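Input sequence (341 aa), recorded before submission:
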Amino acid sequence: MSSEGSLFSIWSRNFVVTKLIDTQSTLVAVLPDDQAGPTDGTYRGQRRACEDPDQLIRVRLLRVTQAFEEDPVTVWYNFFKTTLVRPAVKWWFRVKIEGTEKIPEGGCVLAANHLDAGDTFSLPALIKPTTTFPAKKELFMGKGLKGRVVAWFLTAVGQAPIDRSGGRASVTGLGSVEEKLEASGVVAIFPEGTRSPDGRLYKGHTGVARLALSSGKPVLPVAMINTRLVKSKVGIPTMRNARIVIGDPMEFNEYAAQVNELQVLRWITNEVMGAIQQMTGQTYVDVYASRVKRGDLRGADLSSHILDYPNQNQTRPVPAAGQSAASAGDDSAMGDQRMGE
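Predicted structure, token format:
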């Protein structure tokens, strides 16, 4: 092998190992005392301090193997996130984010408006926690080469399949998403269920309310601003002045016992959509975006469905007897995703 080939082999090996390791805090190798020196705790720091770098690489590869056996989803998720997605979002799409400090450690639901395909990768790329996006179950049963690659990728990074047919099927399909929340995970959903056909904010499906009540986790409204993909001068899609704003947590535990009451679910969903609207400044249309995209309202005057705010025609429901006090005591101690009603 030529010296150039040897150098490339060493570089590529070190690059892959570095990326896999630096994204996994659980993979910090502890070297034998006689091999360790002053280090900053990172892979590069340990490699500089180690008298035998090849031994360090072998130790690290062993740790990677162990990590794949113990938690392959986290390893793949962090690898793709830090190696491919985050650099693209930060340096090519130039998306800015505000409010990441508001995300609690115990898990939450991030509910965002949906402008374009870029929303699905921009948000998880810029926040620290591993994020689950419910994806339509058909994507997990892909056919052909492209379909199989997509199915493998979604499974590898731990995304959750959901039935988008609506009604009871969508409700029962929330189980895998609820499991993520029970494990203190972060779940991100687009209550509109599909991308906005014209940039306005459309009626939200009540899956966001069901998740909040069944899990007891807070909902954080998220504003996706200027995240529509546009062509750059070189023809590659990009974004212009894109921003993501994470709002304050919203708690609805006083309605925990009313998870099956449609009036409660609708009011909570509208409250979340209202919080999103306040941050984005979008016009709110009180019909489902999917109806507009299917042509169900073709020729209809959508202006008659425009409201100043989502709960304009709704009355705040009364919590079940004794529920308010119970929730106070507890407090002291879904691609496209569609959450059907």
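Checked by second reader. The radius of gyration is 23 Å.
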